[in-house]
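Lab manual, section 2.4: Encoding a predicted structure.

Procedure: take the sequence of the chain (223 residues), apply the prediction step described in section 2.3, and record the output as structure tokens. A sample record is shown.
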Amino acid sequence: MTIRVMLVDDQVLLRTGFRMVLAAQPDMEVVAEAGDGVEALDVLRSTAVDVVLMDVRMPKLDGVETTRRVCAQPEPPKVLILTTFDLDEYAFSALKAGACGFMLKDVPPGDLLAAIRAVHSGDAVVAPSTTRRLLDRFAPMLPTGAREPRHRELERLTDREREVMVLVAQGLSNGEIAATLVLSEATVKTHVGRILTKLGLRDRVQVVVLAYETGLVRAGGHG
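Recorded output:
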């Protein structure tokens, strides 16, 4: 299956470089490009795309708001944020807006290709531990007004699912969670799947964000 990729960046030279890398892959095709968020949304109305490589700092409409609008569509493409700086506040906002992860613009080509394939298959690209560092830094930006209603959502979870959610938010892998709770890795995977379904979340990145929003896990500490 060919992964249909869209490049959204206001730097033409950067788009050209990414296009050349992707064009050399037998399982990828660049089907669209845009220089800003407004153009990107317009193109997406008429073009089928699987993965969007989204810059965050663009004229007219930035990548965060564009990501929010893209992810609000029915059956949206996966969005992978490209940022110049690690732990960028824009990347934090983009994760909250629905992006599946973020990569630095100077990422080695092999890592970028692996990230695109991972996002396309439904995985989150950003390691939970990286997301946690991001949230530790920008936790003061979390909207406190949304905390109570979001906290009630957690009542849908069993005690075991809440335990698993805390460990996911602390950056543990399924294998590490399994060892911590003395469960099989398959059982942990099932619990994570149920957490996503019950809370209407797309991936582990959004689990981490919600854990911070609700206070289940606190910045700089554990739950």
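Check your result against the sample. The mean pLDDT is 83.
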